[in-house]
From TrEMBL:
Native source organism of the sequence: Chryseobacterium caseinilyticum
Species lineage: Bacteria, Pseudomonadati, Bacteroidota, Flavobacteriia, Flavobacteriales
Entry keyword set: DNA-binding
Signal sequence bounds: none
Top-level taxon in the UniProt lineage: Bacteria
Regions that span the bilayer: none
Protein name (record): Single-stranded DNA-binding protein
Amino acid sequence: MSLRNRVTLIGYTGKEVEIVNFEKGKIAKVSLATNDYYTNAKGEKVEETQWHNLVANGKLADIMEKYVQKGKEISVEGKIVYKSYDDKDGNKRFITEIRIDELVLLGNRQG
């Protein structure tokens, strides 16, 4: 395990887990919202939400499929992966994903 590309996030899932099956296994995909709070120049408390794309495979994909639903609070560790592809119109698109290798189920969003 390299510490050079390591990320830890705690947040709430924004949608149901998407499972993609392949011949040799499956991957689980879900979005995760993390919130940060600060006070702006007017003294108002501001909430800023960042969205992260999570991807897991193997046993983690099985666990996510079974136990993670929209609104579930989770903690993940993994690495940042950058990908690019050309869309149907020939435009270059970029994707940033967190490839997770550790998952902790925390709770559900209240309210």
